[in-house]
Write a structure and sequence with these properties.
With about 475 residues, this protein is α+β, with helices and mostly antiparallel strands. Helix content is about 25%, strand content about 25%. It contains 13 helices and 27 strands. Helix 3 (about 105-110) packs parallel to helix 13. About 50% of the residues are buried.
Length: about 475
């Protein structure tokens, strides 16, 4: 791998076989938690290590302090932490759960370009405001295209190309990265620069899970990992950019939007919430250029919230307008983090895939969409019709039994499950699926602390397994 600058990383792809290729340039943009962060002064990595590092960091009293914004950063003087590359190991944070590495996504895209110099990664400091990172992405996109247009391999390929179309940029973005892409038209002529933008699991209208992680619990005891996350997230502007922007608060007789004062009452900062609302109002005027959206579906998801005595409770239903100003509570699902209601954008139809948020970038089905869109084959239909859903917890206690409820199948015999230590790849023995509360479920017990990949399948379809990274804590770490 070769570094151009702190803003971009050239990918050295691994080619397998001969696929058709594109002369366009490609930029891979990760989601929240998806960039390795390094302290500029010392070179020390402060985010982006192995699963055991996350286990130690979230379950001990020390660790992760460097992620908190400094006084200078709160004043808008950024640069203390440097984004160096996309994560190469699974990353994890409580409530937000896990994010799989982007290795497979990068290789899938890199196999479609005519030369390695055509594709770069765009790591960014996900703690900071979306607008700041979007402007950096715009600058990198322009530089990357200018450099690639002059590359000898591209010049020769264009000379041989009968239509002699000039190359443009294809942006592939996961999660929060799609919000950066949405704002690109603010900074340049997007139609001229961007041929296609492909977003994967992007919360264009926010996610109620972010309200949960900001909530202080109003005196109720929180597990240590969630205490640490709340203290960190409370001062991160990037987190506030992910707050839900639709009517998500269930007040019984009516539904309302979350406002900055509400955010302050549940434990956040009203000032950061106001800045996020202002940025969102600017951003919603734009749409990702020439957009294709892949969205997770059929997973139990926090779609709305209720607030009682300062405590936030997630609801697995959306609040839709009913007759005579009433509220209809409808379960639309999502990817376990991003509700389907939040994936809507101006123009285009989202392509649904039964999968959880953090696992989307490593799906075979996503690689197929990339191939068709990047090569402009448009063969479709791209995605299978599988509807497997799995309600997988983000934190469990070692040695204690927990259950994963499975939807989309009629009988436990249709369910398959694997549990693998994400650090060393070792499988964990599991019990037979059974019925629990009238629904197929798998009873699991993991004896050793760590981060584990729980994967659920079912039915006769060939769709990839629905998977989630789970933090297994010792009993004293909860």
């Amino acid at each position: 791998m070769r570094q151009h600058s702190s803003d971009e990383t050239v990918v050295e792809p691994h080619f397998e076989g001969r696929l058709p290729t594109t002369r366009d340039a490609i930029i891979i943009v990760p989601g929240i938690m998806g960039s390795e962060l390094t302290e500029y002064a010392s070179g020390r990595i402060v985010w982006g290590m192995t699963p055991q590092w996350y286990l130690r960091s979230w379950t001990s009293s020390a660790g992760l302090e460097l992620l908190a914004l400094s006084d200078s950063e709160r004043d808008g003087k950024y640069g203390r932490l440097r984004p160096t590359r996309l994560i190469r190991f699974p990353a994890y944070a409580p409530i937000l759960s896990g994010i799989e590495p982007y290795t497979k996504l990068i290789r899938s895209a890199a196999s479609l370009v005519i030369h390695p110099a055509a594709i770069i990664e765009f790591p960014y400091d996900w703690r900071l405001p979306v607008t700041y990172n979007a402007q950096r992405l715009a600058e990198v996109a322009v530089r990357h295209l200018e450099r690639w247009a002059k590359h000898p391999r591209q010049v020769e390929a264009q000379r041989q190309d009968l239509d002699r179309d000039s190359p443009r940029v294809i942006v592939v973005a996961h999660s929060m990265g799609g919000l950066l892409v949405q704002e690109l038209p603010r900074f340049f002529d997007a139609e001229r620069i961007i041929r296609t933008s492909i977003t994967i699991g992007t919360p264009f209208h926010g996610a109620p899970k972010v309200v949960l992680l900001l909530n202080s619990g109003a005196g109720s005891p929180l597990p240590l990992p969630r205490q640490k996350l709340r203290r960190l997230a409370e001062g991160m502007p990037g987190m506030y950019d992910l707050l839900p922007a639709y009517r998500c608060v269930d007040n019984g007789a009516y539904a309302s939007q979350l406002n900055p004062n509400d955010v302050e009452r549940i434990g956040g900062q009203a000032s950061l919430a106001r800045l996020a609302v202002e940025a969102r109002e600017r951003r919603k005027r734009y749409a990702p250029p020439n957009h294709v959206a892949i969205v997770g579906a059929h997973q139990p998801t926090a779609e709305s919230i209720s607030v009682r005595d300062g405590v936030v409770f997630p609801n697995q239903y959306s609040l839709l307008p009913g007759r005579d100003e009433s509220v209809d509570r409808v379960r639309l699902g999502g990817d376990g983090t991003v509700p389907r209601l939040s994936t809507r954008t101006n123009g285009g139809t989202p392509l649904p895939l039964a999968q959880r948020h953090g696992a989307l970038p490593r799906m075979d089905e996503v690689a197929l969409v990339l191939e068709d869109v990047i090569l402009r084959q448009e063969t479709g239909p791209w995605l299978g019709a599988g509807e497997i859903g799995a309600d997988i917890p983000d934190i469990v206690t070692a040695g204690e039994t927990f259950y994963v409820a499975v939807s989309g199948v009629d009988h436990p015999r249709e369910v398959s499950c694997t549990v693998v230590d994400a650090e060393v790849g070792r499988s964990v023995t599991i019990g037979e699926p059974t019925f629990r509360e009238g629904q197929p479920a798998v009873a699991l017990r993991i004896d050793n602390p760590g981060i584990y990949r729980v994967a659920i399948g079912g039915g006769s379809g060939g769709q990839s397994l629905v998977s989630e990274l789970v933090l297994v804590c010792g009993s004293s770490d909860r």
